[in-house]
């Protein structure tokens, strides 16, 4: 039933046949043998048609396109579908179930749905189990818990992983907001002595945090011997704040501090959010300050919560002070921060002409900074004053400021809403030209697409390529594939760039099958893959360790007159190094030179790393010396690789020489470089040498961090050399660390 590979496919098709462990011949559940129909036998035959084990993904991809298979499957009775699944191994049973459901629209019986749920649970595919049960609940809706509980109790009691299915069912009900159903499932679990997971309890607690029942849920968690997590306590605190139980919230914080451990940032954020919501901003500020007392560092959410509370209460100057403090602490204000501030100014009418106050608050410095401009742009665009937003943009650019992601998104959104398509397209091009990632602007691009259609303007292949590129970078591969289909719907022809962009994204995601399908589709449409396309395929093959197939693609490129680039060869060389086949790696290097493709510093970095880690360190050093004589410039990675290898070998003298060479070459030396050396020396108990490197770091003006001090402290304490301990303690005290 499967199409045999053509000459064009021979290079790729065999990649999917690989040895795999055979499954046990047990059925999903015990059933009596009974005669099966010819159709059932033929369908089962698909799973045993080949002498070699067939890749399940490719098998189901082929079945999905098989018209005969689809027609026959749609004629099957539910009992026949059950029979087929019972006779398949777990992986094929799962694949067959979802093929029928998702591709052919077959509605499975409840019993079969829970058979698959148990198989997924047994194989620990919890994410797939959750998605599967979510779909089941979507179809059944509220009030379905009694029948599901009865089915699980009567038909699946004693099954492996039955407790996992019960727990996930309760969790999915909670996530769907079907609290009464969730409580019924939990009640049945209690009767069966099945303990819910903390994940399920957290979800239930979140749904009930507005009610008194949350106290019962929390008590139940403790009664079951489950330790509440930080998230559990955060939800409970949030519930107390939402119910305006201020004293109880503070008492609970003290209680968990006494019972468990130090508070965390999340707990304080929850309390601050609750008190700001109730209008008690001063109390929220007290909790903010209390974080420092406990040695906690507020995060962006902490600042945004407090800034929002201050803006709502009209304390704009104080909100700006906290925003500036946020920047000083190394936290970049995000879109939420700017929107909060812009809304605060708007609430006080500062975006409607009251510029005296605005300038006094925002222009306190001689020159407005990026923060000031971004707030103003957000504020004007929110009030519909796009022209003023663009005037500020021009002012920013004239002063040498680069707009950030937030400014661009606000401006693009405003243009889209006002239907100014050409200006929006121009601004979107500017975004890409300045190097900002297009995936951040995908919603603007999709809005532009809708605007084009609404105004009767036909999108071009460039429009679709932009949408596909953005979707791929955002990791939305299903959307990217949808845009490819959209090209054909508009009677446009996909370009080589279109296919290559998609193929590269699927390769990055590890989906080689989809990459090959796109290559076949591309060639079938009459498009010739170019050098970049083949390089993408090679990269995908290399990632999956299919080295010979990668070489075959390389030879195919050369046969077609296409010249591989350095990146293609480097990818192959790296794979052969990692496979410990250094001879083949150097053969490819020699082949590059014959083809007049000059190896770059990346090539030699890979080869030296390969020799150092997988081969002979002496060979790596000889190659390094030879290339130095040829005046080849190395990356810092080459030096650090050789330094680490010599430390691991115990040749500290060579490591020291290389380290000095690296510094003399002009590379910036950081504490991480010293840490890498010190770690390896400590592992080999070369503590005197480790102290020498530590001292060299201090002489070089580099301050040590806690990690390097901790490693040395532990290693020296394990030893018995008192003089070394004394030397190191003196060094630590000089650095400001407490040796105790």
Automatic annotation (TrEMBL):
PPR repeats: 162-196, 229-263, 264-298, 299-333, 334-368, 369-403, 404-438, 460-494, 495-529, 530-564, 565-599, 635-669, 670-704
Pfam families, per database record: PPR_1, PPR_2, PPR_3
Keyword Repeat belongs to the record: yes
Keywords: Repeat
Matching Gene3D superfamilies: Tetratricopeptide repeat domain
InterPro entries membership: PPR_rpt (IPR002885), TPR-like_helical_dom_sf (IPR011990)
Keyword match Membrane: no
UniProt cross-references to NCBIfam families, sorted A to Z: PPR
Family label: Belongs to the PPR family. P subfamily.
Protein name: Pentatricopeptide repeat-containing protein
Species for this entry: Sesamum calycinum
């Amino acid at each position: 039933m499967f199409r045999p590979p053509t000459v064009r496919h021979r290079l790729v098709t065999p990649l999917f046949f690989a040895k795999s462990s055979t499954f046990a011949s047990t059925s999903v559940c015990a059933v009596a043998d009974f005669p099966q129909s010819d159709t059932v036998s033929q369908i089962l035959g698909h799973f045993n048609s080949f002498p070699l084990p067939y890749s399940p993904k490719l098998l189901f991809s082929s079945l999905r396109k098989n018209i005969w298979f689809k027609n026959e499957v749609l004629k099957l009775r539910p009992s026949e579908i059950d029979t087929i699944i019972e006779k398949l191994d777990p992986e094929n049973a799962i694949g067959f179930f979802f093929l029928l459901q998702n591709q052919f629209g077959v509605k499975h019986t409840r019993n079969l749905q829970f058979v698959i749920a148990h198989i997924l649970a047994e194989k620990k595919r919890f994410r797939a189990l959750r998605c599967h049960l979510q779909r089941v609940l979507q179809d059944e809706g509220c009030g379905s818990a009694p029948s599901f509980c009865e089915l699980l109790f009567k038909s699946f009691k004693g099954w492996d992983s039955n407790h996992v299915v019960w727990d996930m069912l309760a969790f999915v009900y909670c996530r769907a907001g079907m609290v009464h159903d969730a409580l019924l499932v939990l009640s049945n679990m209690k009767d069966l002595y099945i303990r819910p997971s903390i994940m399920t309890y957290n979800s239930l607690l979140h749904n009930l945090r507005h009610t008194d029942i949350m106290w019962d849920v929390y008590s139940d968690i403790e009664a079951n011997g489950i330790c509440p997590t930080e998230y559990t306590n955060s939800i409970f605190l949030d519930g107390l704040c939402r119910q305006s139980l201020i004293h109880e919230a503070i008492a609970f914080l003290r209680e968990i501090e006494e019972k468990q451990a130090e508070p965390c940032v999340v707990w304080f954020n929850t309390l601050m959010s609750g008190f700001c919501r109730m209008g008690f901003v001063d109390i929220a500020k007290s909790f903010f300050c209390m974080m420092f007392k406990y040695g906690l560092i507020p995060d962006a959410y902490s600042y945004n919560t407090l800034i929002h509370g201050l803006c709502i209460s009209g304390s704009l100057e104080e909100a700006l002070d906290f925003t500036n403090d946020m920047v000083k602490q190394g936290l970049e204000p995000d879109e939420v921060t700017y929107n909060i501030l812009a809304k605060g100014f708007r609430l006080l009418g500062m975006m409607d002409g009251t510029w005296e106050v605005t300038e006094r608050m925002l222009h306190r410095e001689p020159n407005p900074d990026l923060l000031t401009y971004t707030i103003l742009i957000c504020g004007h665009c929110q009030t519909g004053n796009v022209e003023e937003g663009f005037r500020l943009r021009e002012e920013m650019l004239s002063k040498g400021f680069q707009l950030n992601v937030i400014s661009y998104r606000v401006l693009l959104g405003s243009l889209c809403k006002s239907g100014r398509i050409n200006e929006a397209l121009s601004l979107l091009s500017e975004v890409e030209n300045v190097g900002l990632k297009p995936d951040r602007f995908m919603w603007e691009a999709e809005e532009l697409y809708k605007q084009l259609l609404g105004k009767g303007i036909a999108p071009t292949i460039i429009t679709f390529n932009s949408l596909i590129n953005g979707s791929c970078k955002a990791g939305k591969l299903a959307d990217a594939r949808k845009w490819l289909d959209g090209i054909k719907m508009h009677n446009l022809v996909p370009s080589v760039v279109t296919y290559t962009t998609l193929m590269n994204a699927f390769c990055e995601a590890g989906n080689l099958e989809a990459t090959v399908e796109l290559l076949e589709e591309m060639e079938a449409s009459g498009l010739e893959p170019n050098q970049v396309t083949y390089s993408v395929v090679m990269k995908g093959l290399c990632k999956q360790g299919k080295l010979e197939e990668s070489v075959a693609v390389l030879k195919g490129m050369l046969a077609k007159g296409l010249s591989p680039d350095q990146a293609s060869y480097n990818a192959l060389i790296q794979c052969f190094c990692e496979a410990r086949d250094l001879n083949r790696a150097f053969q490819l290097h020699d082949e590059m030179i014959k083809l007049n493709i000059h190896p770059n510093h990346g090539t030699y970095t890979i080869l030296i790393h390969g020799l150092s880690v997988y081969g002979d360190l002496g060979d790596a050093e000889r190659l390094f010396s030879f290339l130095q004589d040829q005046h080849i410039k190395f990356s810092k990675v080459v030096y650090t690789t050789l330094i680490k290898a010599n430390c691991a070998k115990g040749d500290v003298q060579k490591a020291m020489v290389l380290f000095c060479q690296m510094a003399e070459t002009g590379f910036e030396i950081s504490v991480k470089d010293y840490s890498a050396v010190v770690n390896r020396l400590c592992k080999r108990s070369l503590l005197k040498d480790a102290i020498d490197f530590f001292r060299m770091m201090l002489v070089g003006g580099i301050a040590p961090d806690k990690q390097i001090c901790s490693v040395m402290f532990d290693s020296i304490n394990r030893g018995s050399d008192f003089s070394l301990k004394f030397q190191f303690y003196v060094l630590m005290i000089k650095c400001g660390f407490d040796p105790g």
